[in-house]
Amino acid sequence: MNKNIRLFVALLCIFGLSSTANAQKEKTSQDSIKVFYDKIFKSLEVAYLHRKDYDWKKLKVETFQNLNKAKDFKSSLQEIKGLLEKINADHSSVTYQGKTYGPVVNISKEMFSEEWQKKFAAKPGFEVKVLDGKFGYILMPHLSFDDFSAANVHKIAQPLYDQIAETKTKNKLEGWILDLRFNTGGNAAPMILALYDLLGDNIVWGVLDEDKKLKSSVKLNKGVYNEGYKNPAYINPNGELADTSKVAVITGVLTASAGEITALAFKGRSNTLFIGENTNGKTTSNMVVELPFNARMPLSLGYDCDRNGNYYKQITPDVLISKQDNFNDLLQDKNIQEAIKFFQKTT
Is 94 a member of any domain? Predict the structure, then answer.
């Protein structure tokens, strides 16, 4: 409800016309609900990855029957969770006024070690360090932001890339560890750009259509993240590539969405080993739909794939290790110990 309508309703109440005001408020709320959900259904029917699997007319009737019981627009948003669950849209949600409505990921605390829980609670950020004087370590967390412009992606990615490039230049490393255990998603572009030196000039991932046929590919080329846009995001590279270096990618059960895309970028890369746990399974590509009243909805349009066009519901590590984390002493972390074995193994 906009400010003028709210003011009008308030004035009517002041003058004792409360019954008229309530009728006006109810009408306005239902109008808002209709406009909002009409846009949601239109987006789903036109663009949702699994749009052909559902009877949208029937779903719309059922949904609006439920919405007739809503007291106001805000309470109507509780219907979103049920709708998205009915269509198995587990990678979608609606964000309105800072709150998210949609399917909830329920993962028991028992799935995580105490070490992991402590680190996660501390909200870990991006880290680059050298372990034992010879192993590069990169912790890549989730990176979420609203400004998807090339300039903003560059602004975020460049300092991350610079830290990795500086570590590469100043040290003679036997291998790199990419830790994605806390990467719950966000935007993959700055993550992959930051890792440019390890990936090199290659196709790094792509999108498949509903029939799992290749729709598009994303390529790195001289620091440019080329996904087909006129003004692509980029970083300014520095020094030689490390794209033939050994890389160990560590994943966990909360590695999801853009975190999984970042892992996928290393699938098909030579000298690469995946260690840890199966990823979360949010391997669909989303676009952000702008909804009425400044709300937003990520909507799945295709399947994520690796550089060779392979789709994975979850990314399964080559070496499975669970709940043997140690973030106070990384050299005692079983995942990292396995990575070091890989680096030191002669082929």
Answer: no
